[in-house]
Amino acid sequence: MEHHSIEIEDLGARIELTSFSAGEVTEIHAMLHVESRGELFEAQINRVQQAEKAFMLSEQATGAKAVFKRYFLSDATNQAFLIKNDDDCTVSYIQQPPLDGSKVALWIYLQKGTDIRNTDGTTVVAHNGYKHIWTMGITDTSAETSYMQTWKTLFTYIDTLKLFNATLKDNCIRTWFFVRDVDTQYGGLVKSRRECFVEQGLTQDTHYISSTGIGGVPADPKALVQMECYALTGFQPQQQRYLYAPTHLNKTYEYGVTFERGTLMQYGDRNHIYISGTASINNKGEVVHIGNINLQTTRMWENVEKLLEEGGMSFEDVMQIIVYLRDGSDYQTVKKMFEKKFPNIPTVITLAPVCRPTWLIEMECIAVKQASNDYTNF
């Protein structure tokens, strides 16, 4: 894995990226950040998009195409429509303000060596008999409660999967749920997702799906929930394994929620790990170190590390990190801790309350490691 940092001084932009190559395919995760400069959003997004164009012309990105993009915005309702979008990939806009003082940050996932196409807002990556299906920004505002919006959004996604002869149970690998006012609306999401999963054959006796459920404001003022998903077809069931880290974490269904802590996907030339949103929790489902951001951060790292170890990886294999903070005043403390521990991993730290009020911080990540498995290459 290679790490790079590109500084574009005239744009006040910094691009953090990791690149991994094995077999025919290269994967790149890039985080784009800009200085605030005390200007209007249009000026900031213009600098972000200029920096993106420069990045795409750089040696590191030559020949790569975007699979998806996620914009982290300080005011999604008033900013998303100002973003000029000519992207040939699925795109997400979510209000989770970057805590570096800017109005926008951008996460881009790119690949080289695969066939990448955009079909009605869904990116499909085809290679070696696999189809990787990325769908961002799903909402449904025809209902007024988070329960019904979650239900309708899930079934919109289920209908999308049918277009690829896929199902939620057999093919969905990773989900994100962004919830407006998570302290009051998260319960409706949890209930709706659980009931939908039962209907689709997902129970504690089968499996769930790795996920992040976090505070985030969709651009549409009527949307209480926004869903984003990654699914895969063409793989054998034994290529997928779920991660539990029982010494540090409990099964999520024990406290009423329905997601996996992490998922390992195995290919001929590499393994992927998708770590769900992870916070300071113990193996009894209890919040640990209430009120202490330093200790909660350390325990969160321990939990993620144990999940990675169970999948045969470590923090050295992590390609990107998203950090969610409940209290923006903790930013400087957390920033220093992350910069010291992970100086090279592309990271964005956002303001996004975690689903339990006493959790001060949560993180998620994606990791990859070269492998030699008896499966088709990625």
Report on this model:
It contains seven helices and 19 strands. It is an alpha+beta fold and 378 residues long. It has a domain of 116 residues: 60s Ribosomal Protein L30, Chain: A, CATH 3.30.1330. The strands form three sheets. Strands 1-2-3-6-4-5-12 form a seven-stranded mixed beta sheet. Strands 7-8-9-13-10-11 form a six-stranded mixed beta sheet. The mean pLDDT is 97.
Can you tag this structure with a few keywords?
6-stranded mixed β-sheet; single chain; 60s Ribosomal Protein L30, Chain: A; 7-stranded mixed β-sheet; about 375 residues; alpha+beta; 7 helices
How do the strands and helices of this protein lay out in sequence?
Layout: E1 2-8, E2 13-22, E3 25-34, H1 41-56, E4 65-73, H2 76-79, E5 90-95, E6 104-112, E7 115-119, E8 122-127, E9 130-138, H3 146-162, H4 168-171, E10 172-179, H5 182-199, E11 210-215, E12 217-218, E13 225-233, E14 240-243, E15 262-266, E16 270-278, H6 293-310, E17 318-325, H7 331-341, E18 347-351, E19 361-370
Helix pairs in contact: 3-5
